[in-house]
């Protein structure tokens, strides 16, 4: 007969009044239970304590913490407490000293990372009563949910740079890009500080097809805001300052030479107007990143009305459980106005390479403008009708370009503006008159002598 087991603290009570096999096994095996309290989500950089609670009446052998990966198929030891030798050590060489044993079964991670996210298991082993060689094991598990706040947010315009549409409406899309968050953040748009009520859109609207601009009235507004003194020049088909300079070279007289003018000719606005409030369409997607975070993209699409949307403030805001307050980025839709043009060199001579560059505007412009260069009344030096880009390069300028006028058109979906600048070409003391060709190339005296010698030879033979 097996004696009755007493009711010890933390131990069950049972009685065995016979020497059957089951009763002996129950008495010989030690008592062991393991439990782990669940953790709330934590933020990257926080300190986390993994506490393994266990109860036993047996003799302790070891406590091992595992990190479970690949859906539970791989268990990686991260920390071990060896009760036999009263020692503990980390199994993670790359993160040594990151884990601290607080009390045998409790492990503390001073600064958690995204890579720490995932399930963990605590295994407790005790010696069997019957033999010291057999170890009784029990385990518990917990999931560590590590959150990361977004690291960056920006608002850009889709499909830029884009031209200005004068006679029909066009769709316009703002894109809010949020990077570095886990889980995916909540993204929404505001206009002038007020939340925008938008229609969810599973797919972006096509440029053509059934989704078309609504409630539009095509009407000539006749409001190009062209100054009177400049509009008269336009009506005559000539640019401002229509006094045509003489073709040829300009003598270099010193510092009191003709300045290069920069004149804003016109600023265009659309010739149609909306008759109803715009309808906004919203789309939200997110893409997983290799570091465990996500990149969220939210788009806001509507039929642009430059008359109303010009100088409107749009903001993208983000809410995330790892943020104490919303994160935001904002842009103001602005049409280009008054490009600032510089010319290098300021005093161009025959044969020089001239660079005409748009350095900026009188205002902050968004979205990015589209630049187009043309020569008033003629083609560019390379024979093309126009040139795209912020800079126009004229290589080896000839004398014939003196007084030529160049137009820079800067436009974005909200408006367009033209600026003219005149090229003044001075004499080059190193080049004699008449020695340059139409492309500005210099003909050498040696070539001239060769042609003269050949001509004299032909004349002598004829005589």
In a few lines, what is going on in this structure?
The chain has 463 residues and is mainly β. Helices cover 8% and strands 40% of the residues.
Explain the overall architecture:
There is one protein chain. This protein is mainly beta and 463 residues long. The chain is built from four helices and 32 strands. The strands form nine sheets. It has a five-stranded antiparallel beta sheet with strand order 6-5-4-9-10, with no helix packed on it. It has a five-stranded mixed beta sheet with strand order 12-13-21-20-16, with no helix packed on it. It has a five-stranded antiparallel beta sheet with strand order 18-31-30-27-28, covered by helices on one side. A hairpin with a 7-residue loop joins β22 and β23 (327-332).
Oligomer: single chain
Mean pLDDT over the full residue set: 76
Unreliable segments of 5+ consecutive residues: 1-19, 93-102, 206-265, 440-460
Biggest sheet features: 5 strands, antiparallel
Q: What best-fitting shape do the alpha-carbon axes yield?
A: elongated
* SS field, number of helical segments: 4
Strand content: 35-45%
Q: How would you write the strand order of the largest sheet?
A: 6-5-4-9-10
Termini separation comes to 152 Å
> In percent, how helical is the residue content?
under 10%
Radius of gyration using CA atoms only: 40 Å
Counted beta strands: 32
Structural class: mainly beta
